[in-house]
Design a protein that fits this description.
By secondary structure, the protein is of the alpha/beta class. It has one domain: Rossmann fold. About 45% of the residues lie in helices and about 15% in strands. The protein has a 7-stranded parallel beta sheet with strand order 3-2-1-4-5-6-7, with helices on both faces. Helix 1 links the parallel strand 1 and strand 2.
Length: about 260
């Protein structure tokens, strides 16, 4: 299916691995150019090399937990048609397990990072009268749990933010929406599962026991989230804004 995205300029945060790298592959296949942003310059370069299409891939190393680096990113790449907010890894743990410093560091990247980059790019898109912003959030915002309280609370805030901004942005020709992936096959799911296994079972090495009973008996593949991001960003879904799509295999209704 031709999504009519050819020639669009896409900026993807957290673009060196996982869902971000998968988004890059999908948007490149649709004829877009991509800017990949992450902290690790070497890993970004390796990902860019693996993607091919060298003339359509640009990398930018930045710590997006810092407001100044977010501002510098928007100044360096102002002409972006689609922003994919994807950077951020909020740690697992209950309220009594995580320090306030941990909360502030985690939210600086994912929560405030998404909000600030949306503010920066929405202003430019408003001036042009077109654009799309995709917030890759997470299913814990819909179904918060105590052992992922920092992430669930942050995700819930981003869901509310997405709805509020997406409801108004259409007046300026810009669509803002979100995707809530459930458990996806990335390095991050292993890290979170190890933390949960340590908390619940006292043994991080039993992390695979945290991944039982999955819908369809499997994890989500990163490309499935990337496909959703590209489809929703395209003219084929041109009336979608403010919505947060749950990609969870019906998990929220399984009890």
């Amino acid at each position: 299916m031709d999504l009519k995205l050819s020639g669009r300029r896409v900026l993807i945060t957290g673009g060196s691995k996982g869902i971000g790298a998968a988004c890059a592959r999908v948007f490149l296949a649709e004829g877009c150019s991509v800017v990949l942003v992450a902290r690790d310059a070497a890993r970004l370069a390796a990902t860019a090399s693996s993607l091919g299409s060298a003339n359509r891939v640009t990398t930018h190393a930045a710590d997006l937990s810092a407001a100044a680096e977010r501002t510098a990113l928007a100044a360096a790449f102002p002409e972006i048609d689609i922003l994919v907010n994807n950077a951020g890894a909020i740690p697992a743990g209950g309220l009594l397990d995580l320090s306030m410093e941990t909360w502030e560091q985690a939210w600086a990247l994912k929560v405030m990072g998404y909000i600030h980059l949306t503010q920066l790019y929405l202003a430019a898109m408003k001036d042009r009268g077109t654009g799309a912003i995709v917030n890759i959030i997470g299913g814990a915002g819909r179904s918060p749990r105590y052992d992922y309280i920092c992430g669930g609370t942050g995700n819930a805030a981003l869901m509310a933010f997405t709805g509020a901004v997406g409801g108004r942005s259409v007046e300026w020709g810009v669509r803002v929406f979100g995707i809530n992936p459930a458990q996806t096959r990335t390095d991050r799911i292993i890290s979170l599962s190890r933390t949960r296994a340590q908390i619940r079972l006292g043994d991080a090495e039993r992390w695979e026991e945290m991944l039982t009973g999955l819908p369809l008996n499997r994890l989500i593949e990163p490309e499935e989230i990337a496909n959703a991001a590209a489809f929703l960003s395209s003219p084929a879904c041109g009336y979608v804004s403010g919505t947060v799509l749950d990609v969870d295999g019906g998990g929220a209704f399984r009890g």
